[in-house]
Amino acid sequence: MAIDAMAAISPAGDSRAGEVLRLRREISRMQRRRSEHPLLPLDPAFSSLLPEQGLQTGTAYTVSSSPSLVLALLSAASGKGLWCAVVGMPTLGVEAAAAFGIALPRLILVPDPGERWLAVTSALAEVVPLIAVQPGGRVRDAEASRLSARLRDRGTTLLVAESETAGSWPQSEGSIRLHDQRWQGIGEGWGLIEGSTATVTARTRSSPLASSVHVRLPGSTGAVEAIPEETVTELVTLPALRVTDAAPPERPSLAVAG
Fold this sequence. Notes:
Layout: H1 16-30, E1 39-41, E2 54-56, E3 60-63, H2 67-79, E4 84-87, H3 94-99, E5 107-110, H4 117-125, E6 130-133, H5 141-154, E7 157-161, E8 174-186, E9 191-204, E10 211-216, E11 225-226, H6 229-236
Helix pairs in contact: 1-4
């Protein structure tokens, strides 16, 4: 059902409200009463990021708009059998989600909800315990308050991906941001991307001092991997790799693939 629902809500036509109601009924049939758990799990690579070692239910977090970070934050909850949804992120790929360990039968994608992004998110919040959304515009304080009340009532956690058009999200419990990302495998204008390393930093209302972890995102298996502290110093001393228009160095014994 979840894969069929990926395109169930589109910005065209007057049937959008009906599709939202249909989606709500279908998910309610399979999914859940209010969660009694105060936290949603995180991947072990992120276990030291938050003081509670998990995402608080009934709250919203501001996160970087990196699809890899979003998938990494969804993966542990999905692995525990929970439904997840992603709204307004058309570049997020299904194959990448599977590589992060997300169960596709329990993943709802609404890539392009248009102006209905808030209504879609609000409807999903009634029945899906973990939702990532990239807002399609600014949200008014009153709208954010109504959605926050729904999150608390249903025990739903919201990850709000940052966007230039949306501005800051009101009533955020905290922030989880990715920075200092370095790609591996790229030469001077040639080569294959093998992965990347990055720093992920979190702050919350209860713990305003920043907490950071160093990870491979994605790692060798496609999912997130923690980087041991003893190797972090070695990695940061490497020059940052960049893509240029330069040709690869001549290597007579190797064929260059296009």
